[in-house]
Amino acid sequence: EVQLVESGGGLVQPGGSLRLSCAGSGFTLSNYWMHWVRQAPGKGLVWVSRINSYSDGSSTSYADSVKGRFTISRDNAKNTLFLQMNTLRPGDTAVYYCATTNSHAFDIWGQGTMVTVSS
Amino acid sequence: QSALTQPPSASGSPGQSVTISCTGASSDVGGYNYVSWYQQHPGKAPKLIIYEVSKRPSGVPDRFSGSKSGNTASLTVSGLQAEDEADYHCSSYVGDNSWVFGGGTKLTVL
User: Are B70 and B30 in contact (CB under 8 A)?
Assistant: First the structure.
């Protein structure tokens, strides 16, 4: 079964850091474009970041709101995607989902992990 | 990149049809045929139901259909069923390896 499972969320103070993980099973993450998408409580989805497949050079891109603070990466041996989040702000509070894209549509999603930034 | 505009709510009775709009600009919805739609039940992850404006993934009922005219995409749910009550989100590729979503629409089956 194709599956993505996120972990690493929790409560962190403003200015702090957190590292999210997204473990894949049933398929090889490095063959796909992988993304992080977040959803603040009661709000819509917001695209955060993407990393290309290994064959496409593993380049990355970020939403302006997180550029310079967040870093997406992948450990191919562990079939795991990461999101390193630094200098966190209350506005970063959200459920964070990892997802794959196929033809620019987000087709496989994890169950999400909650990040709360509060003092 | 500004979020796409969706109505906050929509409703219909069982068996009826309802259409949800998703308005963007020529730089996103109007410029690419990469509009997708997602269904999200409370506490659950989103599920892809339409991609490339009007294509349905395997397993998605043909009651769900998508279209686009200019800078506005639309999702139509025909033959409404109770289990269709959920939040619906649109998304568009915007070039430069970036994507944008709409604010989401809560669909109520009366």
Answer: yes
**B105 touching A (Cβ < 8 Å):** no
- What pLDDT score does A105 carry? 96
Q: What is the pLDDT of residues B23-73, one digit of tens each?
A: 999 999 999 999 999 999 999 999 999 999 999 999 999 999 999 999 999
Question: Whole-angstrom Cα distance, residue A85 to residue A89?
Answer: 10
Hey, are the CB atoms on B93 and A104 less than 8 Å from each other?
yes
Q: How far is B109 from chain A (nearest CA, A)?
A: 19
User: Least CB-CB distance to A105: which of B48, B97, B100?
Assistant: B48
Closest chain B residue by Cα to residue A43: B103
Look-up: residue for tokens 């409370």?
B42
Q: Calculate the CA dihedral of residues B75, B82, A43, B91 and round it to 10 degrees.
A: -20
Closest chain B C-alpha to A112 CA, distance in angstroms: 7
Contact B108, B45 (CB under 8 A): no
Interface of B with A in 58-87 (CB under 8 A): none
* H or E stretch at A37: strand A33-39
d(CA A74, CA B11): 42
- Give the strand pairing for A70-75 and B105-109: unpaired
Residue B1's pLDDT band (boundaries 50, 70, 90)? confident
